[in-house]
Specification:
Blueprint: E1 2-6, H1 15-25, E2 29-33, H2 46-59, E3 62-71, H3 78-95, E4 99-103, H4 112-133, E5 136-140, H5 148-158, E6 163-168, H6 170-174, H7 179-186, E7 190-195, H8 216-225, E8 231-234, H9 248-265
Parallel strand pairs: 1-2, 1-8, 2-3, 3-4, 4-5, 5-6, 6-7, 7-8
Helix pairs in contact: 1-2, 1-9, 3-4, 4-5, 5-7, 8-9
């Protein structure tokens, strides 16, 4: 498997410095948080997109994905949601990234089947744009659809190869789902896996990999046992937890921990 980290762990860090961290610590790729407060976002000019893509190519580091914040199950008109997804797809295409991340974001006050249908309709429409650009849209296990069983209620009806799943290991665990169950639901659709660690269900501040309670060993075991050979991306949520330890000093030990888990699983 290839290893990456998310720029959520290094808020606002310029791309050359992000790439220096990736190469220094042996990461194959980077997931780019696509938000206006970051150096890379959908508002980037064509020239800046080209420069960013060139920097990654020169460094020999891949752009794993563009992590957007579109909520595909949110109530309201489809048009703004689809426009937002198209912006993310265009950015990913220009950077050479294979994936775009979206969230579910359903209103808990609405019947789940209504929100599922809205999300499936939007993703099915956006899939055609994704196919034209050679990018895949991944629905993350998150918020209203935190487990694999939740996500499949949307992904199943979409039934398009350009729409898949992003397995964030924390949310299914918080939802009471075992890694084997999550994998069974998501495996036909799985794009990549976000790893992380936390102290408890009540304290989700980011910890170094292996220092918390998330079932990382079990997740890696399940993936290896089924011969899955995609990406593991460390999403260290420094942006939301200012007192968390800085990610740069943790990247080396974090990579070592993942390599050790992979070796043991093999």
């Amino acid at each position: 498997m290839k290893l990456a980290f998310s720029t959520l762990g290094v808020p606002g860090l310029p791309v050359p410095e992000v790439l220096a961290l990736a190469t220094a610590h042996g990461y194959h790729g980077v997931e780019l948080r696509a938000h206006p407060e970051e150096p890379v976002h959908p508002g980037l000019s064509p020239a800046d997109r080209a420069r960013t893509a060139a920097l990654f190519k020169e460094a020999g580091v891949e752009v794993l994905g563009v992590a957007g914040y579109t909520r595909v199950a949110a109530p309201g008109d489809d048009a703004p949601v689809l426009e937002e997804i198209r912006g993310l797809l265009g950015l990913a295409h220009d950077l050479g990234a294979p994936f775009v991340r979206v969230f579910p974001g359903a209103d808990p006050a609405l019947p789940p089947e209504e929100s599922d249908a809205v999300a499936a309709r939007r993703l099915g429409t956006a899939a055609e744009d994704a196919a034209a650009l050679g990018v895949r849209i991944l629905l993350e296990t998150h918020d209203s659809h935190r487990t694999g069983a939740d996500a499949i209620r949307v992904l199943g009806p979409v039934g398009h190869r350009q729409v898949g799943a992003l397995w964030d290991v924390m949310h299914p665990w918080l939802g009471g789902e075992q890694p084997a169950q999550t994998y069974a639901s998501l495996s036909p659709h799985l794009g990549y896996v976000q790893v992380k660690d936390i102290a408890s269900a009540e304290d989700t501040a980011p910890l170094p990999l292996g220092a918390g309670v998330l079932p990382l060993t079990e997740c890696v075991d399940v993936l290896c046992r089924h011969g899955w050979d995609g990406w593991l991306c460390w999403e260290y949520e420094k942006r939301w937890y200012e007192t968390a330890a800085p990610l740069p000093e943790l990247l080396g030990p974090g990579r070592d921990h993942l390599v050790r888990l992979l070796d043991e699983a093999a």
